[in-house]
Design goal:
The chain is an alpha/beta fold. The protein contains 5 helices and 19 strands. GO terms for molecular function: galactoside O-acetyltransferase activity.
């Protein structure tokens, strides 16, 4: 017997080339868009209802999280967020592959997370081939506004990404990184904590 042929959805989730025009994937995207539309158009006071919609949309959530509308995503079920997650306005996650986000992650406005990619050569791109690579974001990460994260990137824990950065390569733990392309600027140390105690009269 021959090897079982993968569906386009199975190809997508396995990181293989696939075609997003497939009916199953199109229906999945439509379901996500219906939830996202409802989420984005609820009155501001309906926080509990918005939270329930996110729990229905995302593949995994914890007890404490808050997502400011508007939100955009492709499928939703590939997004996993840890406890104490917060994202500001206009979060975009193209979750054709798994997007794993740790605890105490804070996202500024207009953060864009792209797992999706397309062939560089026009002939293949015109045949509507796509691919996707997972993105992993560690614990206690702060992404500044207008940060873009490209496919296949892993960001370590205790990391700050400066606003307007385009992250194309992995970022290690305990650093401040920024730029286009994003590069490590320096290590984060206890001196950064002391700065806030000294300048903002925080109690130790």
């Amino acid at each position: 017997m021959g090897e079982k042929q993968l569906t386009e959805k199975e190809k997508m989730l396995a990181g293989k080339a696939y075609q997003a025009g497939d009916n199953e994937l199109a229906n999945d995207r439509l379901k996500a868009r219906e939830i996202v539309f409802e989420f984005n158009n609820l009155p501001p006071k309906q926080i509990k209802q918005r939270k329930q919609l996110i729990k229905k949309l995302f593949g995994k959530t914890e007890t404490m999280f808050y997502v400011e509308p508007p939100l955009r995503c492709d499928y939703g079920y590939n997004i996993e967020v840890g406890d104490h997650f917060y994202s500001n306005f206009n979060l975009v996650i193209l979750d054709c592959a798994k997007v794993s986000i740790g605890n105490h992650a804070f996202f500024g406005p207009n953060v864009a997370i792209y797992t999706a990619g397309h062939p560089i050569h026009p002939n293949l791109r015109n045949q509507e081939h796509e691919w996707a690579q997972p993105i992993t974001i560690g614990n206690s990460v702060w992404l500044g506004g207008n940060t873009v994260i490209n496919p296949g990137v892993t960001i370590g824990s205790n990391v700050v990404i400066g606003s307007g950065s385009v992250v194309t390569k992995d970022i290690p733990d305990n650093v401040f990184a920024a730029g286009n392309p994003c590069k490590v600027i320096r290590e984060i140390t206890d001196a950064d904590k002391d700065f806030y105690y000294k300048n903002f009269t925080l109690e130790q």
